[in-house]
């Protein structure tokens, strides 16, 4: 048995793995609840590793509240760095491969060209720094690891930009969306499938990889496409970053180069608009079913 354990199972990406496991009939993938698998509780984690002896441990747990992290530095550091370090140490002890998710926010975002894995990471906010610290903790404690940096994650699950826009678009006549921050939306189901592809092929080309959907967009482009696909009629106005100040500074350009993951691991990557169509259609279908039930 090639047991797979998902840590952070109740979060957005963990929920995507649950959906895939259900769709594909995967029986050797396990989703221990946080009460049993808190990544900050090394003793509880050891029990999980002892019980399942995972060939692969997938870390989907993270502190992702970018603005709150500026005030909750210690908590962000614990979850994003210490939690990753705990999983890395136990993965080394039990011979597991750790697949750890990170972020495009490790980059400063002041260069308008796609970032490669070899480019210097230089975070400009607490969240990005703690995620980079987590990457370093994994690298320092383990040889068999895949670190996947991703960006602008959304899905049918949890709180994310797509669900927020659909809600606000149905409630308001006008929305102002930032148009000068550039990146790439990533569908959580696509990312989860990419990770499953790495596991299924038993690839041993360990290291850091970039994964987002193909293409480039601003938050304004992203929002406009959400409204177009969902046929949500709301006036959408582009604004500059300085017109919508936030606690944390965001990278202006955080598009990632995916050449390495495609050539080395053979991962095929969908275009962001195509995946967004799939997600929104599923969300609208779920909403329709819920209305019928009610």
From TrEMBL:
GO terms for cellular component: cytosol. Its EC number is 1.1.1.133. The keyword Protein transport does not apply. It catalyses: dTDP-beta-L-rhamnose + NADP(+) = dTDP-4-dehydro-beta-L-rhamnose + NADPH + H(+). GO terms for molecular function: dTDP-4-dehydrorhamnose reductase activity. Residues 3-283 form the RmlD-like substrate binding domain. Pathway: Carbohydrate biosynthesis; dTDP-L-rhamnose biosynthesis. Gene3D superfamilies: NAD(P)-binding Rossmann-like Domain (3.40.50.720), UDP-galactose 4-epimerase, domain 1 (3.90.25.10). It holds the Pfam family RmlD_sub_bind. Keywords: NADP, Oxidoreductase. GO terms for biological process: dTDP-rhamnose biosynthetic process. It is an enzyme of class 1 (oxidoreductase). The keyword Oxidoreductase applies. Catalyzes the reduction of dTDP-6-deoxy-L-lyxo-4-hexulose to yield dTDP-L-rhamnose. Belongs to the dTDP-4-dehydrorhamnose reductase family. This is dTDP-4-dehydrorhamnose reductase. It comes from Mucilaginibacter limnophilus. The gene is rfbD.
